[in-house]
Structures are given as structure tokens and as C-alpha cells.
Design goal:
The complex is a heterodimer of chains A (145) and B (138). Chain A has 145 residues and is α/β, with parallel strands linked by helices. Chain A is 48% helix and 12% strand. A four-stranded parallel beta sheet of chain A has the order 2-1-3-4, with helices on both faces. Chain B is an alpha+beta fold. Chain B has one domain: Alpha-Beta Plaits (2-Layer Sandwich). Chain B has a four-stranded antiparallel beta sheet with strand order 2-3-1-4, with helices on one face. In chain B, a hairpin with a 3-residue loop joins strand 2 and strand 3. Chain B is elongated, with a radius of gyration of 22 Å. Chain B starts with a strand and ends with a helix. Classes of the chains: A alpha/beta (145), B alpha+beta (138). At the A-B interface, helix 1, helix 2 and helix 6 of A face strand 1, strand 4, helix 4 and helix 5 of B.
């Protein structure tokens, strides 16, 4: 079982397909869960402490907007954990924690420079594309076993 | 550790969110369940949720999708009832991907050959554009 990071990091379709094929999908909600449901809430309501921007500093310089560093404190550690990646380019509707374009550029760059196997795709718009989309993901994940 | 998962149904699935909720109510598992318009949110111990999800998926293997959620169901930090209305931030992603679920469901259920897709037209390469401009000006 390989740890596969998906981009967008909040994607339902990608994380579901990874789990269906017997691998572990690395996604942001899991990291958020660890923070917001921790027994010792140090900094209510979301438990973002001064430690989080420090984690973000490992991936982005201090003059980079705090939003990028904050997001990287969540996404950066899961990129480090990743053994493979599936990237879907230009979904066009990223919002919330996946809604920062500069962070997304940095995330894609860090995944590519990490040197793990990467599958590049785009979201399907018709049945034929969907079949190819699912087949490519399946073949990629089978190759990781 | 307590975990929360979304169980989301494809719009073409014969399984309704209420069917999933009723199955969970009638199961032996000790979990919290919240029914929504697009599926259900389940919250409970990790091993229990994993076993439950396997059973739910069996209802319609190609039409039911699972997604992780950070906040527990009804959490006042995310619940729109406490925030004065409006969709919670993560809903837009689910809404956008839900439109694609029928395509993915049909692809997962497909057992035939994979069709060849003609390559999409790419924008004109800059070098070719330069050549055309030079030809036009000379």
C-alpha cells in the first residue's frame, strides 16, 4: 500500500479512486481533523498555534503571504509523506483551503521536484474521457504495488 | 481516534441518502449519522467507520463515493445553522465534483474496451506564430 497525494488535495473523486485501489490517499481533511479534534485545544476555535506558520516556513519564505505559509503548514507535511502523486490540472473551481493559486503552484512544484511517480490528468467532460480517466488511475495505482 | 467521512451518492445511483441512513440505523455499528442532500456524514471510531463504509459501498459499488471530512458533523465552527447561513467552505468542491459523479460511476461500471480519444486541439505554438508573422510581413 503506497501513500498517494492527490491534487486538488480536497478532491473526493481522486481520494475515493485511490482508496478503492487499495492505497492510502493523503488529503487535507485528515490533517485538519488532527488539528480541530485534538483533545488539547491550545488556540480555539481551529487550534492554529504559532507552530503552524513555523512549519509553513519550511516551504515558503517569510515574505510570502501568510495564507500561503498557513496552507503549506497543512499540505507540506503530506507532500513529504507521499510516495506517489496524482495531479489534475486546472479544475477551475478550487475554493477554501485549495483556493489559493500561489499555494497550488508551490504544491505542484514541490510534488514534481520530490521525484515520486506522478500521473497528470485533466477532469473528464464526457463518457469516453471518464473511462480513460478511471483506467489511467487504475493502471498507475496497480503499478505502485 | 474518531473520524468523520462523507458518503456521497451519484445522482444516477438508485441508492438514496435516506437508504444509506436507514441502513446505518439498522446496523450494529455505534456511529453518529447525519443525512444531507448529497449523501450522509458518518462519525465514529476509525475501525468501525472503515467496516461500515465497506458495507455501504456494497449497496452500489460504482455509485457511492467516500470522502474524508475534518470537522465532526454539526460542529458549530462549520455548521451553517450557527454561522448565519450559507454553504460551508468545503461544499463548493463537493458540489462541483458531484456533477461529474455520473461520468465516473459509468466508467467504473464499464467492463468493455477503453475508447481512443482524439487529441484536443492545442493553441498555436509561438514559433509557428512568429513564422506566420514573418511570412506575412515579408
Amino acid at each position: 500500500m503506497a501513500k498517494v497525494i492527490v491534487y486538488p488535495p480536497t478532491s473526493m473523486i481522486l481520494s475515493d479512486l485511490v482508496e478503492r485501489n487499495g492505497h492510502k490517499a493523503l488529503v487535507v481533511p485528515e490533517v485538519v481533523r488532527r488539528l480541530v479534534t485534538a483533545n488539547e485545544i491550545e488556540s480555539p476555535p481551529l487550534n492554529i498555534t504559532p507552530e503552524e506558520p513555523k512549519k509553513g516556513l519550511r516551504y515558503a519564505a517569510v515574505d510570502v503571504p501568510s495564507g500561503v505559509r498557513g496552507r503549506m503548514s497543512l499540505i507540506g507535511p503530506i507532500i513529504e509523506e507521499a510516495e506517489a502523486a496524482i495531479i489534475v490540472e486546472d479544475p477551475g473551481w478550487l475554493t477554501g483551503c485549495a483556493g489559493c493559486s500561489r499555494t497550488n503552484e508551490l504544491v505542484r512544484l514541490l510534488i514534481r521536484t520530490k521525484g515520486v511517480p506522478v500521473l497528470d490528468l485533466s477532469y473528464p467532460t464526457n463518457d469516453a474521457e471518464a473511462k480513460v480517466f478511471v483506467q489511467k488511475i487504475k493502471a498507475f495505482l496497480e503499478g505502485l504495488k | 481516534m474518531l473520524v468523520t467521512k462523507y458518503v456521497i451518492t451519484s445522482s444516477e445511483s438508485n441508492v438514496l441518502p435516506s437508504d444509506i441512513a436507514m441502513k446505518i440505523y439498522g446496523s450494529k455499528y455505534d456511529v453518529n449519522v447525519k443525512e444531507t442532500c448529497f449523501g450522509v456524514i458518518v462519525n465514529g471510531e476509525e475501525e468501525v467507520i472503515n467496516a461500515l463504509i465497506k458495507e455501504i459501498r456494497a449497496l452500489d459499488p460504482a455509485g457511492i463515493f467516500i470522502k474524508d471530512r475534518g470537522f465532526p458533523p454539526g460542529d458549530p465552527r462549520r455548521c451553517r445553522g450557527r454561522r448565519g447561513g450559507g454553504a460551508r467552505p468545503g461544499f463548493y468542491m463537493i458540489e462541483a465534483e458531484s456533477k461529474m459523479l455520473p461520468l465516473i460511476s459509468r466508467a467504473l461500471a464499464w467492463e468493455g474496451d477503453i475508447p481512443a480519444i482524439p487529441e484536443k486541439k492545442k493553441p498555436l505554438a509561438i514559433k509557428r506564430l512568429e513564422e506566420i508573422a514573418k511570412e506575412g510581413l515579408s
